[in-house]
Protein: Quinolinate synthase
Organism: Streptomyces sulfonofaciens
Amino acid sequence: APSDPDLVARARAAKERLGDRVFVLGHHYQRDEVIQFADVTGDSFKLARDAAARPEAEYIVFCGVHFMAESADILTSDSQQVVLPDLAAGCSMADMASAEQVAECWDVLTEAGVADQVVPVSYMNSSADIKAFTGRHGGTICTSSNAQRALEWAFGRSAPGAGKVLFLPDQHLGRNTAVRDMGMSLDDCVVYNPHKPGGGLTAEQLRAARMILWRGHCSVHGRFSLDSVDEVRARIPGVQVLVHPECTHEVVAAADHVGSTERIISILEDAPAGSKWAVGTELNLVRRLANRFADQGKEIVFLDRTVCFCSTMNRIDLPHLVWALESLADGKVVGRIRVDAETEHFAKLALERMLALP
Ligand code: 13P
Ligand code: SF4
């Protein structure tokens, strides 16, 4: 639906009143009505870097979800304030690993005698507490665009063949990167279930594993199935299947291309006219790409028509953005995201290790 013209005018006016004092970041999964006001759009990695590169902006308005805004707060200076236009915009995957559960997991690894061989690698899609845990234990953060480099870094820190990675919280990104990109086998991976005593694993299994995958997943990407890949290949001859690495291993294994949101966009930009694509990622982005490339003769469809939007990304809508911008223009900070100093210190260590990856 087209954006409400009155709200568009109000957002524009508030942004003009704020001028350089505000910088608006928009993740690719945001609604069109919101993304039109973003000063920069990107995947999680690009947005983290861009937030850190705007020291002159007093306010960073983050159109995305809670863990992204927390990361921006960690990476920006103390005088800058990060605003999430709806504080209820969380991420169900990030919520699947709590600080208590992860501390308990470390105890399990310690009891099994493997903790000193384990380097934690945590996906950006995690709370600041989990990032701080990662930093405290010598690990790094990764995103879907640098997961392989992060794992290589982590394994490179141990004696050859001795290392293990605890990958949090997305089992699929961890497994897909290890198996598809790095040639490990499915047997090298075990899944730690935080709802079972000892993670549901024996000490022997933990000792044999190379990748200890946290049992978390994305509720949106987890719904693309092998059936949807088979169905689209039958329906559209010559179609190429392009999916996000948060999809399950069987979907990723059946796809032609895999990549972060930024990579998905660049693959489609480079695609020749007449090519056909089925894309398995969040619907706002797929729709925007289908519209953008339609007049270049590229046919882009959604991989599975029964999968819906990321409901928490969609919480940031134009009314919330207008409310945030107008409040800031009136001198009132709403929706502020603030990470406490100790958590920030250790989370920043882990984020900076990611930013320094080759
Ligand atoms: P990227 O934009 O880094 O690919 O991440 C996708 C995602 O699910 C963010 O929530
Ligand atoms: Fe979280 Fe999945 Fe939504 Fe990304 S798409 S914010 S991982 S629930």
User: Anything to note?
Assistant: Residues 341-355 form the longest helix (15 residues). The chain has a mean pLDDT of 96.
